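Re: your question from the hallway

Yes, I did run it. Sequences:
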Amino acid sequence: SQTIHQWPATLVQPVGSPLSLECTVEGTSNPNLYWYRQAAGRGLQLLFYSVGIGQISSEVPQNLSASRPQDRQFILSSKKLLLSDSGFYLCAWAQGHQETQYFGPGTRLLVL
Amino acid sequence: GQNIDQPTEMTATEGAIVQINCTYQTSGFNGLFWYQQHAGEAPTFLSYNVLDGLEEKGRFSSFLSRSKGYSYLLLKELQMKDSASYLCAVTSVSGGYNKLIFGAGTRLAVHP
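Structure:
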């Protein structure tokens, strides 16, 4: 069966510091991968998606970037965090772009 | 543009039935998902509708009317553990790929 992992689970970072969040998927190959952010009391906002190694599409201009160095690894990064980057970051995978998306456990980021 | 509307909060009694509505406007519609999200946790998949009609899965059912841009999630025999946010999400084809657009979610509180 497929599983999706994210780490760290929680993170407190000062403004201006770098960020690296990791997501890995097991039990499948060539998945579509997604990064979402959920601000407190709000819906999920799609940040990036990837249909293959090295292929990244950005949905909104922002302070963040994403990379996919391996088939089942998706990384969310920032060079300098802003206060507005605080939120709940969720990684998801799907087997094909018409399939159900399954979410990882998420990373709660607090920027102070 | 794309827009998804669902009530912000609902309350119901244990053992009762509750219906959570979702209306949407989107281009390139290719299906509608319902997810359940407990506080502090990741969303989990509940149902998917691509054709008009009712899909039943145990205590949960989901209905879709594409012509009306309308869906509902029906929860029967409510249990305390059903207290959660319920997210309506529509798939929208953009750039040749399906993307999930999420509503802000409906927080359901089940009382004894």
